[in-house]
Structure formats: structure tokens, C-alpha cells
Amino acid sequence: MTQDTLHITVIGAGHGGKSMAAEMAMRGFPVTLYNRTEANIEAIRLRQGIEITTEDGSGHFGQLACVTSDLEEALANARLVMVVIPASGHRDVALCAAPYLRDDQVVVLNPGRTGGALEFAEGLKAAECPARPIICEAETFLFAARSMGPAQARIFRTKFSVPLAAMPTTRTAEAVSLVQQVYPQFIPAKSVLHTSLNNMGAIFHPALILLNAAWIERSGGDFEFYMDGVTPSTAKVLEALDRERVTVASAVGIRAQTAQEWLSRAYNAVGANLHEAMHANQGYSGIKAPPQLQHRYIFEDVPCSLVPIAEIGHQYGVETNTIHAMVRLANIVHGKDYWREGRTMERLGIKSMSVQELHRYVDTGER
Q1: Which of 205, 242, 275, 295 is catalytic?
Q2: pLDDT, mean of residues 233-252
Q3: Which of 113, 117, 217, 328 could be bridged to 137 by S-S, CB 3.0 to 4.6 A?
Q4: Are the C-beta atoms of residues 6 and 78 closer than 8 Å to each other?
Q5: How far, in Å, CA of 116 to CA of 121, rounded?
Q6: Cβ-based neighbours of 194, under 8 Å, separated by 6 or more
Q7: How far apart are CA 52 and CA 68, in angstroms?
Q8: What's domain 8-196's superfamily in CATH?
């Protein structure tokens, strides 16, 4: 398949979606950008593209093949579908896309957070989707990127590698082969359990925004989120969260990488502890804090990252006290019950499964 014939659809026109769509388009791929709210893509549609500043500081224009708020139109010619929205919307996308998906399509959740592919598969099942596309989840998002205007985006840094797994695992090689035609940085992961439990957004996002809540509300996010927001004390909380995540992964037979190991692999950033390693990552330099607490770092990462990690821990006998504390704080700040709204074992379709049954399900698709 040539670059001209590999039609790609990006679902979502936020920070990541705009950046990824523009970056692929500037390299000559025919890209369709979909967003359910027409007003959010009106400027892009009028220009038929996005101005993109790449990490070397150079400016480019990514001309898009199509910009639409019609999901049927967006999926009609796509071979590769890159879903780049908050994970809290994955199930809704599955339900809405179910009538239009095809067997020959590869759908990638960028990223899946924790349990994304499992929840998406359950959504397609609930919608009685007649097709069997390959559903994949990336361990993290390829870029550190931000939207810089209605039709502008900037990529601060590109990760060296991003593990990708399909549900079921037997289709991972096929999916990675296709995705690597666009991004060779994607590498095969052992399973969606590995991508889900190596979810660093769970560690870096909710705690930092909650622990810096007063600063965010007072300044409107006018500070560098990682450079200023990660202090020795906040880094200790991140390390406690990370230990719980790694322990939960161990309970289901997975050797998860630590946050420090991940920073080294993804960004070549190292240090004696997590505080030093995060400050050694130049990819985080210049990234401002969220302007408000009503932000996806809470409404996405709590129900779709922390809750399922804690739920998996509970099912397999691991206490997650620090994770519970962060979810409790988020519930208070947002006035929500993220335990109820989040990715429960029922929503992921894995309630009461033994560890052996869980691995068989993600590897083969058989319950």
C-alpha cells in the first residue's frame, strides 16, 4: 500500500487530533479529520488544513483531504482510523461508529489509557456491530503537542517509541505493520494488558493537577506544568501512585515498567529519582499547566485510568490506597462519582475472570 492510497481518518480535533492530522497530511498522506461539533472545525474546514509547527520550530501546512462532522463520511474511505479524543469518549465513538466500520479497518485508540480496547470492544458488541475491525490501543500518545489556535497546532516532542497492541493479541502484528507505514515509532506490545497497565497518564496527570489546584485556579495555569508543578514532594506522590500501578500489573502476571524506566525509553530522560528524571525531559519544557480544573487530566484520567487500575487491583487482591485518595479528591473537586462513571470491570467485560481467563480473553478474544 502506497502513501497515496493509505487513507487515514483522525477522530477528534483537540490538541492531539489536530497535531496528528496536520503532521500526517504535511507528509502527503490523504487525511480526513472528523469532529462531532462542526463549530470546532469550521476554521479548519474553510482553510482545508492546519498550520503545524514541528519540534524543530519550522512551520508547515497540512492540507487535509476532508474535514467533516459526519462520521459515516469520515469512515467511508479510511483504512486506518486514529481515535485521538479523551478516553472518556471511547465508548461513545464505538457506539456511533459501529454501523460504519468494516472488517479491513484498523482502529487505534491514541492512547487507550487503561482498558480502552476492552471498553471499545464491549461498545461494538452492545451496538451489534456487524464488522470485525482490528481494535488497538497505544500505550501513550506519540506527541507532546498543543493546539495553538483554531487551525494551528504545535508539536513539542515526538516519542522515540510507542508500544501498540490489538484486541485480540493475535492481530497485533497485522495492525502494527499497517501503522508503521505512517509512524515507524509504533512497536508491538505483548497485549492490551501491557499497554493499559503501562499507562503513564494515570501517574502524571491527575495527581499533578489536583496537587497544584490552588496555583492553577489562582494563575489560570500560567506556569509550566511539569517543570514547575513537579516538586520533590509532588514527585513522591507520583512515585507512590506508580508503585501501586506496578503492583497491580504484577498481580495479573505483567512486569510493568516504572515511570522512570518509561521516561528513559520514551524521552531518553534519566535521573536518580522521578523528580530528577522528569526535569531532565526537555520534551516537557514549555508545556503550560491546564487553565482550569475542569480538564481532561481529571475527567479523562481519573475514570479511565485510575479507576480501572484500582478496580483490577481490587479484583486480584491489591490495595491501592494512594490511587483511592486521588479519586476521592477528584470526586470532591468535580462533584462527581468517578467510581460509578468510570471503567468498571463490568464495562470492560472482565468481571470475575481469573488471571488465566483474562489473559486468554485478551490474547484470543475467547471468553
Answers
A1: 205
A2: 98
A3: 117
A4: no
A5: 9
A6: 139, 163, 165, 254, 256
A7: 19
A8: NAD(P)-binding Rossmann-like Domain (3.40.50.720)
Which residues, 6 or more positions from 220, have their beta carbon under 8 angstroms from its beta carbon?
Answer: 291, 292
Reading the block at residue 237, the C-alpha cell is 506522590
- The answer on pLDDT for 283 being more than 90 is no
The span from the CA of 261 to the CA of 258, in Å, is 5
Residue whose grid cell is 482510523: 81
104's grid cell: 479491513
Domain ranges of the chain: 8-196, 201-356
Encoded amino acid at 322, one letter = T
Half-sphere exposure of 285 (CA within 13 A, CB side): 9
Which residue intervals of 39-147 are DSSP H helices?
42-47, 71-75, 90-97, 116-126
Predicted confidence band of residue 282 (pLDDT cuts 50, 70, 90): confident
d(C-alpha 314, C-alpha 304), whole Å: 16
3-state helix, strand, coil in the chain (%, to 5): 45, 15, 35
Would you tell me how many other CB atoms lie within 10 Å of the CB of residue 126? Answer: 13
Active site residue 314: no
Number of neighbours of residue 128 by Cβ within 10 angstroms: 8
DSSP class of 248: H
What's the CA gap between 179 and 147, in Å, rounded? Answer: 24
Q: With CA atoms as reference, report the closest residue to 326 among 231, 201, 208, 215.
A: 208
Contact 165, 188 (CB under 8 A): yes
Select the more confidently predicted residue: 367 or 361. 361
Is 301 among the catalytic positions? yes
- CB of 197 within 8 A of CB of 182? no
Measured CA to CA in angstroms, residue 228 lies from 39, 106, 165 at distances of 34, 39, 34
Cis peptide before 111 (omega within 30 of 0): yes
Q: Per this entry, what is the length of the chain? A: 367
Residue environment code for 296-306, b if the CB has 16+ CB neighbours within 10 A, otherwise e: bbbbbbbbbbb
Q: Can you list the positions of beta strands (E) in the chain?
A: 8-11, 31-34, 49-53, 59-63, 66-68, 80-83, 106-109, 134-138, 143-149, 152-158, 162-167, 186-188
Other beta carbons less than 10 A from residue 341's beta carbon: 16
CATH topology for the 201-356 domain: N-(1-d-carboxylethyl)-l-norvaline Dehydrogenase; domain 2 (1.10.1040)
